[in-house]
């Protein structure tokens, strides 16, 4: 049975709150705690989970990484929602717990990937969320090290290079027993007015739909993810803007895959 997605009624009063000294202080405290604990996890826990257990079993290694990653990462929604007092609103279809999902998200800000943690935590998939991201992010101190250990997929945003990268890395996630939330940003970059103008110009010249609130999505990466993981996914989900209007369709393995909204 299919569920109907209804639009979220946005409350403009929640937007563009002034940056007060107190809010700035709370944000700095959250960031310092987050980065310092990340460094501790990478230095002390990752060698055991990634190197030690991987010699015995890739599955057990991934489970250990997922456990430690989820344990540490669960701190962020607490800091973000309770300490920083950020209100996160979810709407759309009811999402079952603990599924293997290909999650498609638009990219309105540079930190959209952090907002997905709030949803993943509530659905028992926080530790196994993985991202397809640009390769330059893998060079960041602390974060970049973690991205490598967590098996995030880095792409160059050049299809002649990325096609083989995606196929090679995605093939390691085909086991349906491995928990997975694979997050993909089809726009390829965060939204700005200038990028939107360029996207509209390209779409008009190519005879494609001209979009106003999002950038024209790139489809080759999505298609490769879908085809490679089709037999091991439970569903494909769509996250719209930062309010989590989540459209979801259930699909069982070995049956046709339905894409939500």
UniProtKB/TrEMBL annotation:
<protein>
    <submittedName>
        <fullName>Uncharacterized protein</fullName>
    </submittedName>
</protein>
